Amino acid sequence: MLTDAKIRSLKPAATRYLTTDGRGLSLDVLPAKEGADVGVRTWIFRYRLNGNQEKLTLGRYPDLTLAAARKERDRLAQLVATGKSPAQEKKLARGGRRSDPTLREFGDRYYNEQVAPNRKDPSEVRRYLDNEIYPSLGDSPLKDVGVLDCQRLIYRKRDKGRIITALHMRAILKQMFDYALELQLVNFNPASQCSTKYIGRTRKRTRALSPNEIRVFLRTLEAADIQRSFKLALNITLLTLTRKSELRLAEWKDVNLEAGEWFIPPQNTKTNTEHVVHLSSQVAEMFRELQVLACGSEYVLPGKSSLRKPMHENTLNAVLERLAFGIADFTIHDLRRTASTILHGKNFAPDVIEIALGHKIPGMRGVYNVAPYEAERKKMLQWWGDFVDSLVNESNVVTGNFGT
Protein backbone atom coordinates (compact mmCIF):
# COMPACT_ATOMS: atom_id res chain seq x y z
CA MET A 1 0.00 0.00 0.00
CA LEU A 2 1.24 3.43 -0.91
CA THR A 3 1.25 6.53 1.30
CA ASP A 4 1.82 10.15 0.36
CA ALA A 5 5.13 10.08 2.21
CA LYS A 6 6.23 7.01 0.27
CA ILE A 7 5.21 8.55 -3.03
CA ARG A 8 7.15 11.72 -2.27
CA SER A 9 10.21 9.60 -1.48
CA LEU A 10 10.14 7.80 -4.83
CA LYS A 11 13.19 8.64 -6.89
CA PRO A 12 13.21 8.61 -10.68
CA ALA A 13 15.31 5.91 -12.29
CA ALA A 14 17.05 5.67 -15.65
CA THR A 15 13.98 3.88 -16.99
CA ARG A 16 10.31 4.14 -16.04
CA TYR A 17 8.96 1.80 -13.38
CA LEU A 18 5.67 0.98 -11.65
CA THR A 19 4.95 0.87 -7.96
CA THR A 20 1.67 -0.71 -6.95
CA ASP A 21 -0.97 0.32 -4.42
CA GLY A 22 -3.03 -2.84 -4.83
CA ARG A 23 -6.25 -3.90 -6.56
CA GLY A 24 -4.93 -2.82 -9.96
CA LEU A 25 -3.85 0.70 -9.01
CA SER A 26 -0.22 1.60 -9.77
CA LEU A 27 1.90 4.70 -10.05
CA ASP A 28 3.96 4.98 -13.24
CA VAL A 29 7.19 6.85 -12.45
CA LEU A 30 9.03 8.31 -15.45
CA PRO A 31 12.69 9.35 -15.60
CA ALA A 32 13.31 12.96 -14.59
CA LYS A 33 14.11 15.51 -17.24
CA GLU A 34 17.48 17.19 -17.11
CA GLY A 35 17.63 19.58 -14.17
CA ALA A 36 14.47 18.18 -12.49
CA ASP A 37 14.40 16.34 -9.16
CA VAL A 38 11.36 14.20 -9.93
CA GLY A 39 9.84 12.67 -13.02
CA VAL A 40 6.23 12.62 -14.10
CA ARG A 41 4.15 10.28 -11.92
CA THR A 42 0.95 8.95 -13.43
CA TRP A 43 -1.80 6.77 -11.95
CA ILE A 44 -2.59 3.61 -13.92
CA PHE A 45 -5.51 1.23 -13.37
CA ARG A 46 -5.01 -2.33 -14.68
CA TYR A 47 -7.78 -4.91 -14.85
CA ARG A 48 -8.89 -8.07 -16.66
CA LEU A 49 -12.13 -8.26 -18.61
CA ASN A 50 -13.30 -11.29 -20.56
CA GLY A 51 -9.85 -12.80 -20.20
CA ASN A 52 -8.07 -9.76 -21.63
CA GLN A 53 -5.71 -7.41 -19.81
CA GLU A 54 -6.65 -3.73 -20.11
CA LYS A 55 -5.35 -0.53 -18.54
CA LEU A 56 -6.53 3.03 -18.12
CA THR A 57 -4.62 6.21 -17.31
CA LEU A 58 -6.33 8.08 -14.47
CA GLY A 59 -4.24 11.24 -14.08
CA ARG A 60 -1.01 12.65 -12.72
CA TYR A 61 0.10 12.81 -9.11
CA PRO A 62 -0.20 15.15 -7.17
CA ASP A 63 -2.97 16.71 -9.31
CA LEU A 64 -4.87 13.47 -8.69
CA THR A 65 -4.26 12.68 -5.05
CA LEU A 66 -3.77 9.20 -3.62
CA ALA A 67 -7.22 9.29 -2.03
CA ALA A 68 -8.86 10.46 -5.26
CA ALA A 69 -7.01 7.81 -7.28
CA ARG A 70 -8.24 5.06 -4.93
CA LYS A 71 -11.79 6.35 -5.13
CA GLU A 72 -11.66 6.35 -8.92
CA ARG A 73 -10.07 2.87 -8.89
CA ASP A 74 -12.98 1.57 -6.78
CA ARG A 75 -15.54 3.15 -9.10
CA LEU A 76 -13.93 1.62 -12.16
CA ALA A 77 -13.65 -1.77 -10.47
CA GLN A 78 -17.42 -1.75 -9.98
CA LEU A 79 -17.82 -0.96 -13.67
CA VAL A 80 -15.61 -3.94 -14.58
CA ALA A 81 -17.71 -6.13 -12.29
CA THR A 82 -20.76 -5.35 -14.44
CA GLY A 83 -18.90 -6.43 -17.58
CA LYS A 84 -18.08 -2.96 -18.89
CA SER A 85 -14.67 -1.78 -20.04
CA PRO A 86 -13.52 1.48 -18.38
CA ALA A 87 -11.05 2.05 -21.21
CA GLN A 88 -13.77 1.70 -23.83
CA GLU A 89 -16.17 3.85 -21.80
CA LYS A 90 -13.58 6.64 -21.64
CA LYS A 91 -13.07 6.45 -25.38
CA LEU A 92 -16.80 6.60 -26.02
CA ALA A 93 -17.16 9.47 -23.55
CA ARG A 94 -15.16 11.73 -25.84
CA GLY A 95 -18.08 11.60 -28.26
CA GLY A 96 -20.80 11.34 -25.63
CA ARG A 97 -21.25 7.69 -26.55
CA ARG A 98 -20.46 5.84 -23.35
CA SER A 99 -23.28 3.91 -21.74
CA ASP A 100 -23.61 6.31 -18.80
CA PRO A 101 -22.69 9.79 -20.11
CA THR A 102 -23.04 13.04 -18.26
CA LEU A 103 -25.54 15.51 -19.63
CA ARG A 104 -22.66 17.56 -21.05
CA GLU A 105 -21.16 14.54 -22.83
CA PHE A 106 -24.46 13.56 -24.37
CA GLY A 107 -25.40 17.18 -25.07
CA ASP A 108 -22.29 17.52 -27.23
CA ARG A 109 -23.14 14.29 -29.02
CA TYR A 110 -26.71 15.50 -29.63
CA TYR A 111 -25.38 18.79 -30.96
CA ASN A 112 -22.82 17.16 -33.29
CA GLU A 113 -25.15 14.46 -34.62
CA GLN A 114 -28.54 16.18 -34.73
CA VAL A 115 -28.22 19.95 -34.46
CA ALA A 116 -25.13 20.98 -36.42
CA PRO A 117 -25.92 18.88 -39.55
CA ASN A 118 -29.61 19.82 -39.69
CA ARG A 119 -29.84 23.49 -38.73
CA LYS A 120 -28.91 26.38 -40.95
CA ASP A 121 -27.66 28.30 -37.92
CA PRO A 122 -27.02 26.00 -34.93
CA SER A 123 -25.33 28.70 -32.86
CA GLU A 124 -28.46 29.41 -30.80
CA VAL A 125 -28.59 25.82 -29.53
CA ARG A 126 -24.85 25.90 -28.86
CA ARG A 127 -25.28 29.07 -26.83
CA TYR A 128 -28.12 27.64 -24.72
CA LEU A 129 -26.11 24.49 -24.01
CA ASP A 130 -22.90 26.26 -23.04
CA ASN A 131 -24.34 29.27 -21.19
CA GLU A 132 -27.58 28.01 -19.65
CA ILE A 133 -27.86 24.23 -19.47
CA TYR A 134 -24.30 22.98 -18.85
CA PRO A 135 -23.47 25.29 -15.91
CA SER A 136 -26.41 23.83 -13.96
CA LEU A 137 -26.74 20.25 -15.19
CA GLY A 138 -23.68 19.50 -17.32
CA ASP A 139 -21.83 17.34 -14.80
CA SER A 140 -24.91 15.32 -13.78
CA PRO A 141 -25.24 11.78 -15.14
CA LEU A 142 -27.77 11.98 -17.96
CA LYS A 143 -29.94 9.21 -16.54
CA ASP A 144 -30.11 10.98 -13.15
CA VAL A 145 -31.52 14.26 -14.48
CA GLY A 146 -35.12 14.43 -13.36
CA VAL A 147 -38.22 16.52 -13.83
CA LEU A 148 -37.42 18.80 -10.89
CA ASP A 149 -33.93 19.47 -12.29
CA CYS A 150 -35.42 20.61 -15.59
CA GLN A 151 -38.12 22.62 -13.87
CA ARG A 152 -35.64 24.50 -11.69
CA LEU A 153 -33.61 25.46 -14.74
CA ILE A 154 -36.61 26.48 -16.84
CA TYR A 155 -38.65 28.16 -14.10
CA ARG A 156 -35.66 30.28 -13.10
CA LYS A 157 -35.94 32.05 -16.46
CA ARG A 158 -39.74 32.08 -16.32
CA ASP A 159 -39.73 33.77 -12.93
CA LYS A 160 -37.49 36.51 -14.28
CA GLY A 161 -40.05 37.19 -17.01
CA ARG A 162 -37.92 35.63 -19.76
CA ILE A 163 -40.69 33.43 -21.12
CA ILE A 164 -39.24 32.97 -24.61
CA THR A 165 -35.86 31.92 -23.18
CA ALA A 166 -37.59 29.46 -20.83
CA LEU A 167 -39.59 27.95 -23.70
CA HIS A 168 -36.50 27.66 -25.91
CA MET A 169 -34.59 25.95 -23.11
CA ARG A 170 -37.43 23.51 -22.54
CA ALA A 171 -37.56 22.73 -26.28
CA ILE A 172 -33.81 22.02 -26.47
CA LEU A 173 -33.88 19.79 -23.38
CA LYS A 174 -36.92 17.91 -24.70
CA GLN A 175 -35.36 17.30 -28.11
CA MET A 176 -32.08 16.21 -26.52
CA PHE A 177 -33.80 13.72 -24.22
CA ASP A 178 -35.96 12.48 -27.11
CA TYR A 179 -32.71 11.53 -28.84
CA ALA A 180 -31.42 9.91 -25.65
CA LEU A 181 -34.64 7.86 -25.49
CA GLU A 182 -34.16 6.79 -29.09
CA LEU A 183 -30.65 5.56 -28.19
CA GLN A 184 -32.01 3.85 -25.03
CA LEU A 185 -29.74 5.83 -22.74
CA VAL A 186 -32.64 7.01 -20.56
CA ASN A 187 -36.03 5.56 -19.66
CA PHE A 188 -38.10 8.75 -19.83
CA ASN A 189 -37.94 12.36 -20.93
CA PRO A 190 -37.94 14.68 -17.88
CA ALA A 191 -38.28 17.84 -19.98
CA SER A 192 -41.54 16.62 -21.51
CA GLN A 193 -43.03 16.69 -18.01
CA CYS A 194 -42.44 20.46 -17.85
CA SER A 195 -45.69 21.56 -19.46
CA THR A 196 -45.53 24.72 -21.54
CA LYS A 197 -48.81 25.93 -20.05
CA TYR A 198 -47.04 26.43 -16.72
CA ILE A 199 -44.16 28.29 -18.34
CA GLY A 200 -46.20 30.88 -20.16
CA ARG A 201 -47.32 31.87 -23.59
CA THR A 202 -45.61 34.10 -26.08
CA ARG A 203 -47.75 36.85 -27.46
CA LYS A 204 -47.64 37.77 -31.10
CA ARG A 205 -45.72 41.01 -31.36
CA THR A 206 -47.46 43.98 -32.93
CA ARG A 207 -44.87 46.64 -32.10
CA ALA A 208 -44.14 49.09 -34.90
CA LEU A 209 -42.35 52.40 -34.48
CA SER A 210 -44.21 55.58 -35.36
CA PRO A 211 -42.52 58.14 -37.64
CA ASN A 212 -41.60 60.21 -34.59
CA GLU A 213 -40.15 57.13 -32.85
CA ILE A 214 -38.09 56.37 -35.97
CA ARG A 215 -36.68 59.89 -35.73
CA VAL A 216 -35.81 59.43 -32.04
CA PHE A 217 -34.35 55.97 -32.69
CA LEU A 218 -32.04 57.10 -35.49
CA ARG A 219 -30.96 60.33 -33.81
CA THR A 220 -30.19 58.51 -30.57
CA LEU A 221 -28.33 55.83 -32.51
CA GLU A 222 -26.25 58.41 -34.37
CA ALA A 223 -25.29 60.21 -31.16
CA ALA A 224 -24.44 57.00 -29.28
CA ASP A 225 -20.86 56.16 -28.33
CA ILE A 226 -20.76 52.83 -30.16
CA GLN A 227 -18.96 51.41 -33.18
CA ARG A 228 -19.88 52.99 -36.48
CA SER A 229 -20.56 49.56 -37.98
CA PHE A 230 -23.30 48.95 -35.37
CA LYS A 231 -25.04 52.19 -36.33
CA LEU A 232 -24.85 51.35 -40.03
CA ALA A 233 -26.10 47.79 -39.48
CA LEU A 234 -29.22 48.94 -37.64
CA ASN A 235 -29.89 51.63 -40.24
CA ILE A 236 -29.54 49.11 -43.07
CA THR A 237 -31.86 46.66 -41.31
CA LEU A 238 -34.55 49.33 -41.11
CA LEU A 239 -34.08 50.57 -44.68
CA THR A 240 -33.83 47.19 -46.46
CA LEU A 241 -36.60 45.31 -44.57
CA THR A 242 -34.18 42.40 -44.12
CA ARG A 243 -33.73 40.07 -41.17
CA LYS A 244 -30.85 40.58 -38.78
CA SER A 245 -29.35 37.20 -39.66
CA GLU A 246 -29.42 37.99 -43.38
CA LEU A 247 -27.29 41.10 -42.87
CA ARG A 248 -25.06 39.49 -40.24
CA LEU A 249 -24.12 36.66 -42.63
CA ALA A 250 -23.83 38.86 -45.73
CA GLU A 251 -20.60 38.55 -47.75
CA TRP A 252 -19.09 41.16 -50.04
CA LYS A 253 -19.12 38.79 -53.00
CA ASP A 254 -22.91 39.05 -52.92
CA VAL A 255 -23.05 42.85 -52.85
CA ASN A 256 -22.98 44.67 -56.19
CA LEU A 257 -22.77 48.38 -55.46
CA GLU A 258 -22.61 49.34 -59.14
CA ALA A 259 -25.89 47.59 -59.85
CA GLY A 260 -27.33 48.59 -56.46
CA GLU A 261 -28.15 44.99 -55.50
CA TRP A 262 -27.49 42.73 -52.57
CA PHE A 263 -28.00 39.01 -53.23
CA ILE A 264 -28.98 36.88 -50.24
CA PRO A 265 -28.28 33.18 -50.90
CA PRO A 266 -30.89 30.55 -49.96
CA GLN A 267 -28.91 29.26 -46.97
CA ASN A 268 -29.12 32.69 -45.35
CA THR A 269 -32.86 33.21 -45.76
CA LYS A 270 -35.67 31.95 -43.57
CA THR A 271 -37.58 30.61 -46.59
CA ASN A 272 -34.51 28.84 -48.06
CA THR A 273 -35.01 30.74 -51.32
CA GLU A 274 -32.66 33.31 -52.80
CA HIS A 275 -33.59 36.95 -52.37
CA VAL A 276 -32.39 40.15 -54.04
CA VAL A 277 -32.47 43.42 -52.14
CA HIS A 278 -32.49 46.58 -54.25
CA LEU A 279 -30.36 49.19 -52.53
CA SER A 280 -31.59 52.74 -52.14
CA SER A 281 -28.99 55.46 -52.59
CA GLN A 282 -28.84 55.81 -48.79
CA VAL A 283 -28.16 52.11 -48.23
CA ALA A 284 -25.61 51.92 -51.05
CA GLU A 285 -23.65 54.68 -49.35
CA MET A 286 -23.82 52.83 -46.03
CA PHE A 287 -22.49 49.66 -47.66
CA ARG A 288 -19.57 51.65 -49.10
CA GLU A 289 -18.73 52.86 -45.62
CA LEU A 290 -18.98 49.33 -44.21
CA GLN A 291 -16.64 48.09 -46.94
CA VAL A 292 -13.91 50.34 -45.56
CA LEU A 293 -14.67 49.34 -41.97
CA ALA A 294 -14.56 45.61 -42.88
CA CYS A 295 -10.76 45.85 -43.37
CA GLY A 296 -10.70 43.27 -46.15
CA SER A 297 -12.97 40.72 -44.47
CA GLU A 298 -15.17 38.62 -46.71
CA TYR A 299 -18.06 39.51 -44.39
CA VAL A 300 -19.95 42.79 -44.51
CA LEU A 301 -20.05 42.75 -40.70
CA PRO A 302 -17.00 40.84 -39.46
CA GLY A 303 -16.76 39.64 -35.88
CA LYS A 304 -14.91 41.46 -33.14
CA SER A 305 -12.41 38.66 -32.51
CA SER A 306 -11.79 37.58 -36.10
CA LEU A 307 -12.24 39.04 -39.58
CA ARG A 308 -12.84 35.51 -40.80
CA LYS A 309 -16.10 35.18 -38.88
CA PRO A 310 -19.33 37.19 -39.06
CA MET A 311 -20.55 39.41 -36.26
CA HIS A 312 -21.96 37.47 -33.30
CA GLU A 313 -25.71 36.98 -33.49
CA ASN A 314 -26.31 38.76 -30.18
CA THR A 315 -24.19 41.84 -30.83
CA LEU A 316 -26.90 44.09 -32.26
CA ASN A 317 -29.42 42.93 -29.64
CA ALA A 318 -26.93 43.96 -26.95
CA VAL A 319 -26.51 47.36 -28.62
CA LEU A 320 -30.26 48.00 -28.47
CA GLU A 321 -30.41 46.95 -24.83
CA ARG A 322 -27.59 49.34 -23.87
CA LEU A 323 -29.01 52.44 -25.52
CA ALA A 324 -31.63 54.59 -23.81
CA PHE A 325 -34.01 55.67 -26.57
CA GLY A 326 -36.72 57.02 -24.32
CA ILE A 327 -39.42 55.22 -26.32
CA ALA A 328 -41.34 51.99 -25.71
CA ASP A 329 -39.24 48.82 -25.90
CA PHE A 330 -38.76 47.32 -29.34
CA THR A 331 -36.68 44.62 -30.97
CA ILE A 332 -34.62 44.54 -34.15
CA HIS A 333 -37.28 42.41 -35.80
CA ASP A 334 -39.81 45.16 -35.07
CA LEU A 335 -37.95 47.35 -37.57
CA ARG A 336 -39.25 45.09 -40.35
CA ARG A 337 -42.78 45.45 -39.01
CA THR A 338 -42.29 49.19 -38.83
CA ALA A 339 -41.35 49.41 -42.50
CA SER A 340 -44.16 47.08 -43.56
CA THR A 341 -46.73 49.02 -41.55
CA ILE A 342 -45.79 52.41 -42.97
CA LEU A 343 -45.44 51.13 -46.54
CA HIS A 344 -48.88 49.55 -46.38
CA GLY A 345 -50.20 52.81 -45.02
CA LYS A 346 -48.77 54.62 -48.04
CA ASN A 347 -50.66 52.22 -50.33
CA PHE A 348 -47.74 50.36 -51.84
CA ALA A 349 -48.92 47.07 -53.32
CA PRO A 350 -49.06 44.28 -50.67
CA ASP A 351 -47.31 41.75 -52.93
CA VAL A 352 -44.45 44.17 -53.56
CA ILE A 353 -44.03 44.67 -49.81
CA GLU A 354 -44.19 40.93 -49.09
CA ILE A 355 -41.52 40.13 -51.66
CA ALA A 356 -39.32 42.95 -50.34
CA LEU A 357 -39.69 41.41 -46.87
CA GLY A 358 -38.49 38.07 -48.24
CA HIS A 359 -41.90 36.47 -47.65
CA LYS A 360 -43.66 33.99 -49.85
CA ILE A 361 -46.93 35.34 -51.26
CA PRO A 362 -49.68 33.36 -49.49
CA GLY A 363 -52.38 31.17 -51.01
CA MET A 364 -53.09 30.52 -54.67
CA ARG A 365 -51.89 34.01 -55.50
CA GLY A 366 -48.44 32.94 -54.46
CA VAL A 367 -48.64 29.82 -56.65
CA TYR A 368 -49.51 31.67 -59.85
CA ASN A 369 -47.91 35.05 -59.23
CA VAL A 370 -44.17 34.67 -59.75
CA ALA A 371 -43.50 38.27 -60.79
CA PRO A 372 -40.41 39.66 -58.98
CA TYR A 373 -41.72 43.29 -59.14
CA GLU A 374 -38.14 44.53 -59.49
CA ALA A 375 -39.02 48.01 -60.75
CA GLU A 376 -41.71 48.42 -58.10
CA ARG A 377 -39.39 47.27 -55.32
CA LYS A 378 -36.64 49.66 -56.42
CA LYS A 379 -39.13 52.52 -56.42
CA MET A 380 -40.57 51.55 -53.05
CA LEU A 381 -37.24 51.08 -51.28
CA GLN A 382 -35.92 54.38 -52.61
CA TRP A 383 -39.09 56.10 -51.40
CA TRP A 384 -38.62 54.43 -48.02
CA GLY A 385 -34.99 55.59 -47.85
CA ASP A 386 -36.04 59.15 -48.71
CA PHE A 387 -38.92 59.05 -46.22
CA VAL A 388 -36.73 57.92 -43.33
CA ASP A 389 -34.10 60.44 -44.37
CA SER A 390 -36.73 63.17 -44.22
CA LEU A 391 -37.74 62.14 -40.71
CA VAL A 392 -34.21 62.52 -39.39
CA ASN A 393 -33.60 65.78 -41.25
CA GLU A 394 -37.17 67.05 -40.81
CA SER A 395 -37.61 67.81 -44.50
CA ASN A 396 -40.78 67.34 -46.50
CA VAL A 397 -41.53 64.21 -48.48
CA VAL A 398 -44.35 63.43 -50.88
CA THR A 399 -46.80 60.96 -49.33
CA GLY A 400 -49.27 60.32 -52.15
CA ASN A 401 -50.86 57.07 -53.35
CA PHE A 402 -48.09 54.74 -54.52
CA GLY A 403 -50.13 51.57 -55.14
CA THR A 404 -49.30 49.54 -58.22
**Alpha-carbon distance between the termini?**
91 Å
CATH class of the largest domain: Mainly Alpha
CATH architecture of the largest domain: Orthogonal Bundle
Strand content: 5-15%
Mean pLDDT: 89
Helix-strand string: HEEEEHHHHHHHHHEEEHHHHHH
Question: Structurally, how many domains make up the residues?
Answer: 3
Largest sheet: 4 strands, antiparallel
Report the principal-axis shape.
Answer: elongated
Radius of gyration: 30 Å
The side-by-side strand order for the widest beta sheet comes to 1-2-3-4
Tell me the total number of β-strands.
Answer: 7
SS-derived structural category = alpha+beta
Poorly predicted parts: 397-402
Give a nutshell description of this structure.
Helices cover 47% and strands 10% of the residues. It has 404 residues and is α+β, with helices and mostly antiparallel strands.
Any overview of this molecule?
The chain is α+β, with helices and mostly antiparallel strands. It folds into three domains: 4-93, 2-Layer Sandwich (Double Stranded RNA Binding Domain), CATH 3.30.160.390; 103-198, Tyrosine recombinase, N-terminal domain (DNA polymerase, domain 1); 211-393, hpI Integrase, Chain A (Orthogonal Bundle), CATH 1.10.443.10. Helix content is 47%, strand content 10%. The protein has helices at 4-9, 66-81, 86-93, 103-115, 123-137, 147-158, 163-182, 211-223, 228-240, 244-248, 281-293, 315-322, 333-345, 350-356, 363-368, 374-393; strands at 17-22, 25-29, 41-49, 52-61, 255-256, 261-264, 275-278. β3 (41-49) and β4 (52-61) form a beta hairpin. Mean pLDDT is 89; it is low at 397-402.
